[in-house]
């Protein structure tokens, strides 16, 4: 009877540790997402936020390298990156468009690995989370740039009005 109880305990332990590891991993992922969202809300530089996202997903999946390509008018850049990755022996692991809430193209998350394989369903969920956070960061960055441009435009108009002598009747 004691042997039966011990075998049940031995079988339950790996499940417990696996479940505990999954819970710890999920907590870690949520803490990382919260940190990224804090950086976005504080107006941290976009390049730093995107680098943190890529580093996080690379570490969580393992044996991949990620980068975010933003649309900048150079459509050949994505082909160039893909060609360069292939030349050094990397295989496309995943390529996901980053879209705004209104489905406007913002960029691409490219992921390359040493082995030719596709993401597992769990990895795909992680990739989708990174794409979503990247979209938030890029949209926030674009909004800040628009605000700065409009502020400069309106303040330059205001400045010239303030520099003129007052109108006297």
- Which segments are poorly predicted (pLDDT under 50) over 5 or more consecutive residues? 5-14, 159-169
CATH-defined topology of the domain at 45-160:
Beta-Lactamase
Portion in helices:
55-70%
Number of strands: 3
| CATH class category label of the domain at 45-160 | Alpha Beta
Instruction: Categorize the overall geometry.
Output: globular
Distance between the termini: 108 Å
Mean pLDDT: 81
SSE pattern, N- to C-terminal: HHEHEEH
By CATH, the superfamily of the domain at 45-160 comes out as: GAF domain
Properties at a glance:
14% strand, 169 residues, alpha+beta, Beta-Lactamase, 66% helix, disordered C terminus, 3 strands
Q: Would you give an account of this structure?
A:
It contains four helices and three strands, in the order ααβαββα. The protein is of the alpha+beta class and 169 residues long. It has a domain at 45-160: Beta-Lactamase, CATH 3.30.450.40. Strands 1-3-2 form a three-stranded antiparallel β-sheet, with helices on both faces. The longest helix has 43 residues, at 121-163. Mean pLDDT is 81; it is low at 5-14 and 159-169.
List the helices and strands and how they pair.
Blueprint: H1 2-41, H2 46-61, E1 64-69, H3 76-87, E2 91-99, E3 105-113, H4 121-163
Antiparallel strand pairs: 1-3, 2-3
Helix pairs in contact: 1-2, 1-4, 2-4
């Amino acid at each position: 009877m004691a042997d039966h109880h011990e075998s049940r305990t031995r079988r339950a332990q790996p499940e417990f540790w696996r479940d505990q590891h999954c819970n710890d991993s999920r907590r870690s992922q949520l803490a990382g997402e919260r940190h990224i969202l804090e950086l976005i809300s504080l107006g941290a530089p976009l390049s730093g936020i995107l680098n943190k996202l890529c580093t996080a997903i690379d570490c969580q999946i393992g044996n991949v390298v990620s980068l975010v390509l933003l649309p900048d008018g150079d459509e050949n850049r994505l082909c160039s990156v893909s060609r360069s990755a292939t030349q050094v022996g990397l295989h496309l692991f995943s390529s996901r468009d980053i879209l705004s809430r209104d489905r406007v193209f913002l960029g691409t998350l490219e992921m390359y690995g040493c082995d030719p394989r596709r993401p597992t369903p769990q990895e795909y969920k992680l990739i989708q989370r990174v794409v979503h956070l990247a979209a938030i960061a890029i949209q926030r960055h674009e909004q800040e740039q628009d605000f700065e441009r409009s502020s400069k435009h309106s303040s330059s108009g205001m400045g010239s009005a303030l520099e003129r002598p007052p109108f006297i009747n």
